[in-house]
């Protein structure tokens, strides 16, 4: 099938673990459907709304917010962002898929701070989102449980595009002239040609294209995503430390090393991997080099270490492209 222009666009809004640094904010990732402006936000660390403004994303076209887990570096920006969407006169309902503690927190904060949102929140407990859930005509989502100090989840982001294709070869063979006749068939209308009825269903075919990416929350066991990753074209996963640092820090924080994620990606034969959520100690040049070297050692696919405002596109044949900033 020929590659079309349908893609998912990813914009990293925050790539630091735990605390923001001068060059990186805490977790936030925007995933946009290239066909329209619909987008999904995964995690909303503090000040994510500033990043959203800088990335020129509109809170009006935000379809859903997914929160991977209830740690502050993944959710402290949520209430401010919801309030701003209200001030910007949003009226469309907004879906929030998150641990149930997040709903309580929003409700208590709204009550204590005189916050009245002018749009409804459609709250979905993340433990009930483990089946595929449709968000728009084209975007769906599915949550997968992970292993962390508090319940944590990854999200499959699935884009589904259907297209009606006209069998132009058959029409040319029959001598049906281009123009209105072709247009009518394409639109599902039967036509008369040489005293015959040509049925639209005989000359059109529905083609579907699927794009699937998984965005992980904090997790020390990438292998939990084995089943979810079976047909995935891109995995975005935390890599808080190198293996040497993780060994020093110990298993308490329940994070992954670059080695652990790289080995998993290699075993699964994943073609694209983006690592994020780096400890501040790995954010300078040497720290990033150490992570990259470790990944290269254990994984032969295509990989990137994300920086704030990095943008990528993923198409339906699984090609991941970094969009160079102009
Ligand atoms: Zn975190
Ligand atoms: Zn965490």
From TrEMBL:
Pfam families assigned to the protein according to its UniProt record, in alphabetical order: Anti-Pycsar_Apyc1 (PF23023)
Record: residues binding Zn(2+) 1: 69, 71, 148, 218
Classification via SUPFAM superfamilies: Metallo-hydrolase/oxidoreductase (SSF56281)
UniProt KW tRNA processing keyword: yes
Needed co-factor(s): Zn(2+)
Source species, domain of life: Bacteria
Co-factor binding details: Binds 2 Zn(2+) ions.
Enzyme class: hydrolase
UniProt KW Hydrolase keyword: yes
Active site: 73 (proton acceptor)
One annotated GO molecular function: zinc ion binding
This protein's UniProt keywords: Endonuclease, Hydrolase, Metal-binding, Nuclease, tRNA processing, Zinc
UniProt catalytic activity: Endonucleolytic cleavage of RNA, removing extra 3' nucleotides from tRNA precursor, generating 3' termini of tRNAs. A 3'-hydroxy group is left at the tRNA terminus and a 5'-phosphoryl group is left at the trailer molecule
Positions annotated to bind Zn(2+) 2: 73-74, 218, 277
Listed EC numbers: 3.1.26.11
HAMAP family per UniProt: RNase_Z_BN (MF_01818)
Record text on subunit structure and interactions: Homodimer.
UniProt family annotation: Belongs to the RNase Z family.
Functional description taken from the UniProt entry: Zinc phosphodiesterase, which displays some tRNA 3'-processing endonuclease activity. Probably involved in tRNA maturation, by removing a 3'-trailer from precursor tRNA.
Stated name of the protein: Ribonuclease Z
């Amino acid at each position: 099938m020929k590659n079309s222009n349908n893609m998912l666009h990813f914009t990293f809004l925050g790539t630091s673990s735990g605390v923001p640094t001068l060059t990186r904010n805490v977790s936030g990732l925007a995933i946009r459907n290239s066909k329209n402006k619909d987008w999904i936000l995964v995690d909303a660390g503090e000040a994510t709304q500033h990043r959203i403004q800088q990335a020129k994303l509109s809170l009006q076209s935000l379809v859903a917010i997914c929160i991977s887990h209830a740690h502050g570096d993944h959710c402290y920006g949520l209430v401010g962002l919801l309030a701003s969407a209200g001030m910007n006169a949003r009226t469309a309902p907004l879906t929030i898929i998150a641990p149930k503690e997040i709903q309580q927190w929003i409700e208590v904060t709204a009550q204590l701070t005189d916050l009245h949102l002018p749009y409804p929140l459609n709250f979905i407990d993340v433990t009930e989102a483990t089946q595929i859930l449709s968000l728009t005509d084209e975007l769906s989502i599915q949550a997968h449980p992970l292993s962390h100090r508090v319940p944590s989840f990854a999200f499959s982001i699935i884009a589904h595009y259907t297209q009606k294709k006209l069998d132009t070869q058959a029409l040319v063979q029959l001598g049906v002239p281009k123009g209105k006749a072709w247009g009518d068939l394409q639109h599902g209308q039967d036509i008369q040609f040489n005293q015959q009825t040509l049925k639209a269903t005989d000359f059109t075919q529905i083609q579907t294209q699927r794009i699937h990416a998984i965005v992980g929350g904090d997790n020390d066991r990438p292998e939990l995503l084995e089943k979810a990753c079976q047909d995935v074209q891109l995995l975005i996963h935390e890599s808080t430390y190198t293996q040497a640092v993780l060994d020093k820090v110990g298993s308490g924080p329940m994070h992954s090393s670059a080695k652990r994620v790289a080995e998993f990606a290699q075993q699964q034969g994943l073609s694209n991997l983006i690592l994020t959520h780096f400890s501040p100690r790995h954010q300078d040049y040497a720290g990033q080099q150490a992570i990259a070297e470790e990944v290269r050692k254990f994984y032969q696919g295509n990989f990137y270490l994300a920086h704030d405002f990095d943008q990528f596109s993923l198409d339906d044949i699984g090609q991941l492209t970094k969009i160079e900033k102009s």
